[in-house]
# Entry
Amino acid sequence: MSAVEASTRENPLTPAIRKTALNAVHRQMGAKMVEFNGWEMPVEYPASIGCGIINEHMAVRTGVGIFDVSHMGDIRLAGAQALAAVQHISMNDAARLAVGQAQYSAMLYPNGTFVDDVIVHRLGEDEYLLVINAGTREKDFDWVRDNTRQFDCAVENLSDDFTQIAIQGPKAVDVLQKVTDADLGKVKFYWVTCARVCGLVNILIGRTGYTAEDGFEIYIPSDEQTSERVWNEVLGVGKEFGVVPCGLGARNTLRLEGKLPLYGHEISDTINVWEAGLDRFCKMEKAEFIGRAALEAAKTAGIKRTLVGLEMTERGIARDGYKVLDGSGREIGYVTSGSPAPFLKKNIALAYVPVEFAAVGTPLKVEIRGQGAGAVVVPTPFYKRPKKP
Amino acid sequence: MAYPTDRKYTKEHEWIQANGTSASIGITDYAQQSLGDIVFVELPKVGAELSGGKTFGTVESVKAVSDLFAPASGTVTAANGDLATSPEKVNQDPHGSWMIKMDLKDPSELNALLSAADYEKFVAEEAGH
# Structure
């Protein structure tokens, strides 16, 4: 047996691997650690404590799980022209945000492809926090700084200041409520608040996440002692709700079921907004923003390929990078993310295919070890969380 | 977990238990732990000719795809069909879950493989890295 796992490949040329403040805790808990975008992160916790990707995934769908997502980056923009700066570098309309509200957005290159996707939080009248991906932290910060110089607005990289913990699942609210004085019932999805958490004052709490489930992300000081204390307290009070620690493995399968894009997979510097199907987060009617002109032209020209959801109809698991074939076996596209879906109990994938193959119900094939295995285009997201009664 | 001494092991983490010229093959506890939740096992058909050190199948966990390597040469006499529907059995009982049975071409090929004690030492080193 010899595992081929892209995320664990070691490159001797990469600089020292980075660790979050919770690294020692993950190791103590027996987590399997992998390299992810320059960070050493837990991919899953051991079966001996009731974990493993499938159990972790199911805990988030049916109960609650917690994730160390401190590898995510944070950029603060503050100043009289902070809104104008955010509007210039992102495609969603930040002018629609009330103080305390957040939105999914993306930063684009002039050609309409992705610098990164981002959650924009409006923290104050003239203050915004962009939460960005681990693999693009430095690139994103440089991009934001270089492209906002003309605005009266300070740009700060706060990425190393926070330990970011995600508490996700239908019971996340019950767990977090035990350690905060915020009235979480009043914090709506994609809103934020500041409150006391585990005795720490003025902690940012966002009702956000990357699991297609209800949940929260909290931003606490990044010193080891505080980070460990909060992690352990959340696990402790969460016991009665069945909380489990979750790694990047479950994070990936959860986001895939919900069709949440991952940079370098569904979005990248070679894919534009229309191809990625993120139209509803791109507000062409707002004032000029970087990438807008190219998107206008791309819309007029019409797109050639689009992101679709696939479900395997024959035995086999589609994986990232596998070829997509038409019925006659001709290569027409590729899988951006593919995996067994633990909650749906199906083998699913996201793939780019020419628009003429994108209709729901279109039979396609995925090339797995030289053989075409049957798949069909299905509606996405694959999973949608049930509406609250 | 203790590695049974009634069989031999490969550095690619397969085990082979031989009785004369017939042998059973599976993957080790270390292998199933490294892979995580196993969701897919693809095995050769009965009658397939295997050569030692070459791939004979695939095992997949939620996250990883791994080749299976034949510990020795021979002809497949059985493939464990249970694993197609219940691949998680490999996680639950790796040393009891045989994947294929084969007729060995030359049982002396097994002499080159690791004993349980040597394999245990080998994985301890690998895990330490």
